[in-house]
Amino acid sequence: MSRDTPTDDEYTAYRVAALPHDEGEFQLTQLFERGYDRWTVDGEQQTKKMLADIERFTTDAFAPSTREEAVERPYVDDPGVLAVLTTLGAVCIMDHPKLEDTPSRHLALLGDLRELYVNNIGSLVREYEDWSLHQEIAETLYAKDPGEDGVHPGRVCTDVTTRPEFGEGYYLEIPFVAASRKCLARADGDEEQQGEIQAHVADNNLYVPVSDFMAKYREYAEDAFDRLLAVQEESLTAEQRSWLTANESAITDRIDRFFQAGQTHRVWENWNRQKRDIRTIINAVKAADDDTAQLDEPQSARALYEALKTYDSGQTWEQRACDSFSTPRSVGNTVTAMGNHSSVSIEHKWENRYTLTEYSDGARPLHVDDLEDLFELPCMAVMDERLQEKQPVRKDLFNLVRLAWWLPQYRDATTEEFISDVKDLFSRWPWYDEDTTEYQIRYELNNDIGGEIPLPMNCENNDMQRYCIGCDQCPYSIYGSLPFPDEMYEQIDDQPSPSTN
């Protein structure tokens, strides 16, 4: 059977769905066509049935039990159908009238849908009987990075087999010459030490347990969701999108019930419209001429309004916020409603005066004159104590380098100036070695993501949780307290729904 397109070949459908970043738009649109065929009878598309299935799949995704069950067995049995249900459900969520101005990364409901997709595609891959699919996926998951001892010209995974001497289950066979550092599968460790290596060595090969393969694939699938959604949005016409959102009702009703019940935490992740508006006003004032408006100085509502009128934002959500203000009074009412925000203070007179500071989401600001000031953050202080006693894990080094690199004093600094300062910082720990540290810093700086500088880890990142004293006990937040530049927050808002921050 030909393996040309997903529409007529199951293997190709699985491969395209499993590795969408490796495929062009044609193959991905063919994957969607395969999915649409599920609702086509005698050449006629059963739109009502398809809409009902989209509604059921999406609203079921809001239930944790559904998402958890999909880890054990697929909720949807075909990769094309899964791609259609997931992406069209996401469109319905994003186009809800109360959510259309919210950056997608702040939509908790989109995170629920992503989780169901990841668990479902993972189960489909696990249950697929042709091991050559796993071998193709392994090419992406375990291949050497460019510059890592050179790219291996042959197959990365030469077999999926059992090795009773290593234990039960299946193993991926990876030749030494093709093996990357990602093949060193580890058991779960703790904050004291890394887990034991689970890969085994025999016959000039590494044998990586399929359990490690599945764990790494689930991480990959989170980005795969975004790729599918981007292609679906590109392929939908305005008429098709309008028809979809106008005719579905169950998803909209469920979201409305969350709002009516006051369960906004189910809808948003650290985002609401008022925060959007006050951040936009602050950014507009910051960008305005001093003669128009200034931060840290009392301003009239009219001055704030004039700053918004002249603000040229490159962000769609900010432009929508600007357009929503029609008069100085509307601006004053918005700022007054946010009077308890840490970035707002109000002098109540016959004409109110508003003093705005750099945007902070309720966190205590931290000024960083020297890199040692970072250790005023409790999590950094805990990390400091650990590094006095133990060698660092790579993500500790990554976070320290990226945290420092985004500070405003280094935006115009040379790489050599930055490396010199970070080496001075690292020299406080007993394991410090100048040459090794310089190599590690340069390595982290050279590892971009899609051509963009990686963001520092946020408080919610799992790796930072090892050092966190608890958000309810801490007056700071990494993204809210440190004086990062606007471009970093713009990169955050442009990102699809994470994790790794």
TrEMBL record:
Domain Primase-associated C-terminal as annotated: residue spans: 380-498
Name by which UniProt lists this protein: Primase-associated protein
Pfam families documented for this protein: DUF8111, DUF8140, WH_Halo_primase
Primase-associated winged helix domain: residues covered: 274-357
Every Primase-associated N-terminal domain range: 12-260
